[in-house]
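To whoever is on call:

I kicked off a structure prediction for a single chain this morning and the downstream step that reads the tokens threw a length-mismatch warning. I double-checked the sequence; it's 188 residues and nothing unusual in it as far as I can see. Pasting both halves so you can look.
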Amino acid sequence: MTRARVARVALGHPGVSGIMVGIDHIPAIVTREGTPDDFDRYFEEGFRNLSAESRHLRFFTAVRELPEDVKTRLRNVDGWNHAAIIAFDAAARDDDHPEGRPVGVARWIGREAGPPELSVTIIDDYQGQGVGTRLMDALLALARKRGVRRIIADMLRENTGMRHLCNRYNATVQPSGDPVVVRYRIDV
């Protein structure tokens, strides 16, 4: 099936909020809002597709498996205090992945305590191909719709991919209180 055909099929799928048809190496990406059920369906597979370096950059340690309390926190998507946008490669649809291969997630957590914290995770094979931008666009659109005015993102200083992504959205650097962590504020 061609990417253009996949794009037309994906647009008709319930819950599809956007699509970017790829050219050459860039996949056809479909995004939608995540649910608690998505964690159980997709998380373990996605986590296995992160290199030790990617896990280190995302979780500040190259953990092989996340502690149960972290899994519980990531699973508790309610669309208000904790929202998630999932990206799928629609060109990689199969019986196990009717929406396509899950390739990334962007989320905010902790809205009740002030500006929520942003995180973006993209499996290694899809990094540097525009998936982060697609996820951020969808997450920030959802944030505006839900009345979120700003989001913060803490990351390791060495996480140049995430820093570059935040800079695309005119983020401002804030004090983090930790010499190895940089905090960005994105006004929605």
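Update from on-call: the warning came from a stale cache, not from the record. Cleared it. Sanity check on the structure: Strands lie at 18-20, 29-33, 82-89, 101-109, 117-122, 150-156, 172-174, 181-187.
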